Amino acid sequence: MANWLGYQDVKLGRQVFGNTTPATLNILGRLNGSYVRLRQKPAELDQARHYKRLGYGTVCVEHDARSLKELQAGFQSAVADPSLSEPHGDNLDLLGERFPCCEVGRRIENPENLPGLPKILNAKFWPVIEGCVGNSVRIVDIECYRTIAPPPKANFEVYANWWHCDQRRSDLHKVFINISDVTLDDGPFSILSRKDTAQALSSEEFNGREDADFEVQDNFPDARWIQHVGPVGSILVGNTQLCLHRAGLPAPSRHRDILVISVVDAAEPSPGFDPAMFTPGYGQTSRYTNPRAYGVIQ
Ligand SMILES: O=C(O)CCC(=O)C(=O)O
Ligand SMILES: [Fe+2]
């Protein structure tokens, strides 16, 4: 029964909102977003208008170079230390079975402890993010991981590298910060605009995440989308509920390091970097526990 309801919820979300996030989570997100903007009456910057229309935007923050180096060095040592990091990826069991000596990624276990991070997420950082999103936000979760070139013969999803929406509340946004220099060869994050997401879902046989390994330029040559290439510190903000997106696959022997800050629209903004404000695992608990149980429509 719960699965049937969940399935109908996702189906309705797809029909009404043009994404694969459940209708209830689209509605809850919209309600909170409208409440926050009603309370705050923020000035509509051009950038926020673009973000609202496209569902993503890039921003520029002048990071403190020393803190960025500190963060990178902390990440490098944590990624090499099995007591501070663990394997990252989807289908890790399958991967272990078929390619026992291959690691496709590593995830830092307590990214909030990374040195340099509080100085990166500082008082200069938040106004830029909020200017892009269009209202104030509260930080809910931090993830930090490395994605590595998978074995060429892996014909299944190894880590969020097939097009999908995250299926959480639609007032959640993700701030992606490259912490290695990312070129097209390093498997950049990619995101499709809101409109093209709806278009892809209505015009294409999109049978859910398990079946979404398509190339935008082949299937939707006119679509607006972006790949998050750029040097260490480059930032892309995206609504991963409203927009199809995916992790890119690095070319053989290459990798990409990324920091992902999840934020939610909030009338009472976070006072900055305060780990007490986090809700670790928010990504998992803020959505149905097992969206894959809904069957083909995700
Ligand atoms: O690793 C990435 O580039 C994207 C992962 C993803 O799908 C997400 O954070 O929602
Ligand atoms: Fe995702």
CATH architecture field = Sandwich
Strand order of the largest sheet: 1-8-5-10-4-3-2
Contiguous runs where pLDDT drops below 50 for at least 5 residues: 288-298
Query: CA-to-CA gap between the ends?
Result: 17 Å
Mean pLDDT: 86
Count of individual helical segments: 10
What is the count of structural domains?
1
Helix vs. strand class: alpha+beta
Write down how many β-strands occur, each being a DSSP E stretch of 2 or more residues: 10
How would you sum up this structure in a few lines?
With 298 residues, the protein is of the alpha+beta class. It has 10 helices and 10 strands.
Description of the molecule:
It is globular, with a radius of gyration of 18 Å. A seven-stranded antiparallel beta sheet has the order 1-8-5-10-4-3-2. It has a three-stranded antiparallel beta sheet with strand order 7-6-9. It has helices at residues 2-17, 23-40, 46-54, 65-79, 92-98, 117-120, 125-133, 194-203, 216-219, 282-285, and strands spanning 56-59, 85-87, 105-108, 137-148, 172-178, 190-192, 225-227, 235-238, 245-246, 255-265. The protein has one domain: Jelly Rolls (Sandwich). The relative contact order is 0.22. It is 32% helix and 18% strand. The protein contains ten helices and ten strands. With 298 residues, it is α+β, with helices and mostly antiparallel strands. The structure holds 2-oxoglutaric acid and fe (ii) ion (FE2). Residues 147, 160, 166, 174, 189, 240, 245, 247, 258, 260 line the site of 2-oxoglutaric acid.
